[in-house]
Inverse folding.
């Protein structure tokens, strides 16, 4: 952890603020008495599973870069150096996937993550970004300076420190950002649940390690000497404790009796309490319990894994990615008219049948209406090459177009016979026998 720096002299000094030092180095206390730190929290399976699930969902989302074009539309750009930093490798020692996982870990355990923007030499504060260096929360101190944020960054490899302006860092915040830092899920909402989980795990581990032997008291009707009591205690501990303890019966003479003092795990409802702790941690993390393997009861996130995943994407991932997009766009692009967006389509896809129905409706056609997808766009979503030509245009129905009316003719009136012309004779009707009547 870097020591506080004097801005005027550039030297470091030890803080004399005792309360601040306790806040920095004293572990968070819980009702169970177990300290909740970054290390102890990650030993709880539910915390580890929730962070792994969120990070695994985000790292597979591509980030596409766009530019605004006249008319308010946007145009997707070909890969640029910034696109490669965000999608391939932000720094020489990091892949983009590892970087996003680290951001999620810092968000869950500390509330914030800071990545330094490395710019071309001599072009700080708005110059061309050439790298993104992920930082450890212990190596960053945030403070206010002239209505802006200053970040004191300590390099543990060289033992040096430097200060950068807020425009030269990507500060990924979480819920409850107060202008300096955000609220950590582990340190606030899930702290007691994690402490209880640590206590329950420790109790069950010690119980199993001691052969599931409860605490007992040995009582005798007659008084025994101190040496006898100590010898009996030592003999009992050596025989009935430890994972390899012998399974031999306890023999007490002279009217001795064994009385259980501790509560059985069943009576403590230890299993049920651990289920409640898992539920509390999942609620604080915004993760449906069924997505981390808890299928013991129904969930209020919806029916079916598809609806549950949709709720997880809409209410947990989307708000987080919105914060990331705003931070990346304002720090890397400014007012240039370019921006990036995460593509959530990969997480929102259903099964093959549902996906085919969505594509069919999107392409449009006779009886379906206008299309809002092109054949090439669908092929791109399926990682297939574009066909070009008419495949790159959406289907538009022919309704509303004027049609050429068919030519109309006026029927001629029947010719009237002349007075001198004798009308033609009428045909004679034949009888059934063919004779003329």
């Amino acid at each position: 952890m870097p020591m506080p720096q004097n801005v005027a002299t550039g030297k470091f000094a030890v803080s004399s603020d005792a309360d601040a030092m306790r806040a920095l180095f004293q572990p968070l206390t819980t009702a169970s008495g177990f300290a909740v730190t970054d290390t102890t929290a990650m030993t709880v399976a539910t915390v580890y599973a929730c962070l792994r699930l969120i990070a695994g969902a985000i790292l597979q989302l591509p980030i596409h870069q766009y530019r605004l074009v006249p008319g308010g539309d946007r145009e997707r750009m070909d890969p640029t150096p910034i696109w490669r930093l965000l999608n391939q490798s932000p720094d020489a020692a990091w892949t983009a996937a590892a970087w996003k996982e680290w951001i999620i870990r810092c968000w869950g355990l500390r509330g914030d993550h800071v990545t330094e923007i490395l710019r071309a030499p001599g072009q700080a504060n708005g110059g061309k970004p050439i790298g993104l260096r992920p930082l450890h929360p212990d190596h960053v101190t945030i403070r206010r300076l002239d209505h802006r944020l200053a970040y004191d960054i300590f390099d543990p490899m060289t033992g040096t420190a430097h200060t950068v302006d807020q425009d030269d860092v990507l500060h990924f915040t979480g819920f409850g950002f107060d202008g300096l830092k955000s609220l950590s899920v582990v340190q606030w909402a899930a702290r007691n649940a994690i402490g209880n989980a640590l206590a329950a795990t420790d109790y069950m581990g010690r119980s199993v390690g001691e052969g599931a032997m409860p605490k007992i008291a040995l009582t005798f009707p007659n008084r025994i000497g101190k040496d006898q009591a100590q010898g009996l205690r030592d003999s009992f501990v050596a025989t009935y404790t430890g994972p390899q303890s012998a399974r031999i019966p306890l023999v007490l003479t002279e009217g001795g009796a064994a009385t259980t003092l501790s509560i059985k795990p069943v009576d403590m409802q230890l299993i049920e309490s651990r289920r409640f702790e898992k539920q509390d941690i999942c609620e604080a993390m915004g993760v449906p319990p069924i997505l981390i393997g808890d299928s013991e009861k129904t969930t209020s996130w919806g029916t079916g894994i598809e609806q549950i995943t949709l709720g997880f994407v809409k209410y947990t991932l989307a708000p987080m990615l919105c914060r990331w997009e705003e931070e990346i766009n304002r720090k890397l692009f400014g007012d240039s008219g370019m921006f990036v967006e995460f593509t959530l389509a990969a997480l929102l896809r259903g099964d093959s049948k549902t996906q085919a129905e969505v594509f069919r409706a999107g392409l449009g056609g006779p009886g379906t209406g206008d299309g809002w997808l092109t054949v090439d766009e669908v092929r791109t979503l399926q990682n297939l090459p574009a066909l070009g030509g008419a495949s790159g245009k959406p289907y538009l129905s022919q309704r509303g177009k004027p049609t050429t009316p068919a030519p109309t003719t006026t029927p001629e009136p029947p010719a009237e016979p002349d007075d001198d012309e004798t009308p033609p004779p009428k045909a004679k009707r034949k009888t059934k026998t063919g004779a003329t009547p």
Q: What stands out?
A: Residues 215-261 form one domain. The chain has a mean pLDDT of 79. The two ends are 130 Å apart (CA to CA). The chain has three domains: 1-213+266-347, 215-261, 349-392.
